[in-house]
Amino acid sequence: MAIDPDxxxxxxxxxxxxxxxxxxYMLAVAKLRSGIADTNEGDQIGPFRLTxxxxxxxxxxxxxxxxxxxxxxxxxxxxxxxFALMASRAFATFVTANNRNPSAKELYVAQFPAAASATLSTxxxxxxxxxxxxxxxxxDEVCDEDPPSLTIDNPNQASAAVGAVRTSGPPxxxxxxxxxxxxxxAFANAGLGTAQQAAGLANAIAESQLKPNAHAGGGxxxxxxxxxxxxxxxxxxxxxxxxxxxxxxIALILAAAMRxxxxxxxxxxxxxxxxxxxxxxxxxDVPGQTAKRLGIAQRLV
Length: 301
What we know:
The chain is mostly helical. The chain contains 13 helices and seven strands. Strand 6 and strand 7 form a beta hairpin. Helix 2 crosses helix 6 and helix 7 packs parallel to helix 10.
């Protein structure tokens, strides 16, 4: 059964940004594997041609609220969710092993090792080119403000670099290096560059000293790495246990940041920090906190 490509692209944008996976990569993979069709090929099911083994291994993730059953593999909207998570996990594994981001081709082979072939670069390039026109209209439909460019041009070119932002040594608190890597990698996965990665990490350092269980009470009820306030802030509707989970806290702040074009399109560290403080974190003393967090960010690059 054919799938409306515009609706499919919109779902890829929603779930890609939610899980930290490039939506254009998702579209290209579905195009390459099935032609974006809700059909099966042997034991490979749906637009992403997932097997039940792949589905079961990636269908449950409490941090993201994923709790899919085996039969849910047959709904293509659910496949977008699970594949976005699969790709995000494969991306993180590649970065840990290689200390750099993968290209689209490298990520695809990491997910589907048996797909490696002499024609894969050409085949993936064709899939990327044929789906490129779906990306921006889907972003316009789904997002309040445009994120940075998410289109892929070359399947052999790696995405925005991880590693330009320091994740160890002052001002990163000792013993919190793994949290710093987690934040920088999540921002890079979303297609954000060095300025945005450093701004995000600097804000988390200022807010919580990278302590996942940090809590501020008094006139607020703020939790976690980015101190998400349950009283009218980004923590509204989320319980303390959820906000204390570093992956979930990062996902919530990143989703908010991706809606702020002044942040996603920033070309300097100063622009990125200023936009993040004023439009995402929104502390009481915006000028003072902007200056403080810029100082932290400058020590990270």
